[in-house]
Amino acid sequence: MEPTHVPLAANSIKILVWDVPVRVFHWLMVLCFAGAYLTSESESLKTVHTTLGYTMAGLIVFRLVWGFIGSRHARFSDFVRGPAAVASYLRSLLQGKPQHFLGHNPAGALAIVALLVLGALTTASGWFALQETSGEQWEEIHETIANLMLAVVLLHVAGVIVSSRLHHENLVASMFSGKKAGDAGQGLRRGWHSIGWLLLLGVAAFWWLQWKIS
């Protein structure tokens, strides 16, 4: 069933929407993509670049799994919507009466799906680029996909800024705190802190291992 927007009540409060694993995944992806992109041309930082790339691949696998078994707003069934829903949401923005969604809005959801796909393609092409037999032809493909991903990231950031202003809600802050405006009783009852910590510790352990063997 395709989710519908939730009008905000006058007495709305801050409720928990994003669980800890979603937030840890989000900011680790930001760190990894930014770091990998900035180190892409440095031969001396090649190990850092590849480590961040492998981390991105692992994070994407985790997010795909969590998208099916995670908390309510982490699941793809909660935010993946069709073109009609995206068009309706964009019209509401242009009309100055934006539809409110507790989870990802349709435009944000489209960007997230695109970034997951592009992230997977970027890391896969990066792995092929490291292979001696086919490295050169994949390097250009890898760079092209990474640049396309950067473009989507910038569009996503612009969309977050616009939506934050129109909704009068700091969406960046909500990805830190996990909280957004909503009605009492609609928030998550569990933040899944243990899974978030395991994800963070797993990434830290992988980085430590890469540092030790480099």
Automatic annotation (TrEMBL):
Kindly state one GO CC term assigned in the UniProt record: plasma membrane
**Mind listing the UniProt keywords for this protein, alphabetically?**
Cell membrane, Membrane, Transmembrane, Transmembrane helix
Q: Name one GO molecular function term.
A: heme binding
Bilayer-crossing residues are 20-39, 51-69, 107-130, 145-166, 191-209
Cytochrome b561 bacterial/Ni-hydrogenase domain mapped to chain residues: 17-178
Protein topology in the membrane: Multi-pass membrane protein
Localisation per UniProt entry: Cell membrane
The Gene Ontology biological process annotation of the record reads: respiratory electron transport chain
One Pfam annotation reads Ni_hydr_CYTB
SUPFAM superfamilies per UniProt: Transmembrane di-heme cytochromes
Q: What start-end ranges are recorded for coiled-coil regions in this protein?
A: none
Q: Does the keyword Transmembrane apply?
A: yes
Name it: Cytochrome B
